[in-house]
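Example pasted here:
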Amino acid sequence: MPHTYSSDHKSESKKVLTKILFICMGNICRSPCAEAVMQSLVKQQGMEKEIDCDSAGTIDYHRGNPADSRMQKHASFRGYELNSISRPFENSDFELFDWIITMDEDNYQQIKWLDQNNNYSGKIRRMTDFCKTARVQEVPDPYYGGNQGFENVLDLLEDACKGLLEFVSSKNHES
C-alpha cells in the first residue's frame, strides 16, 4: 500500500513513503492541527523521508484559508506551527494517500460515503483508534467552544499521533 521511491537513483535500496491525510469538517481546526502534531513527531524521529502528511475538510467553506487563529494560538503554545491552507477532500485523495484519518464519526461516514464502491475502506480510519491513553470516540470540534476545547483537541491529537506513528512505522517495516 505505501508508495515506494528510491532516495538515490544509483542505489538499489528503496524507502517507503507513507502518505497520511487528516480529515475534519472545515480543515481549519482539528485536521491541520493533527497534520502539524504528526509532522513534529515525524521530524523528531528523523522520518521526514518516510512519512508525509496533509489535511483536508469534508466541506469547502473555508477553502484557501489558514487554520483558525485560536487553534494556531493554542498549538503554538505547545510548539506546533499550523501552516496548511484549507482545502476540501477530493476523490483523487483516495489514490494519493495511504491512510485517510478522520476526526469524528460524521467525517468518517462522509468519507466512507464517497467511497461508494468500498475500494478504499482499508485506508479510512478514525483518529481516536490510535489513542494510546484516551478512551474517546472522536476528536470533538472546538470551533464553537472556549479555550479548553482547543487544549482538549491538542491533548487527544498528541496521544493519537503517537499511536498512529507507531502503527505506520510497524506497517512500513512489514513492507
Remarks:
- The two ends are 9 Å apart (CA to CA).
- The longest strand covers residues 15-24.
- The beta strands are 3-5, 15-24, 51-57, 99-102, 124-126.
- The chain has one domain: 16-174.
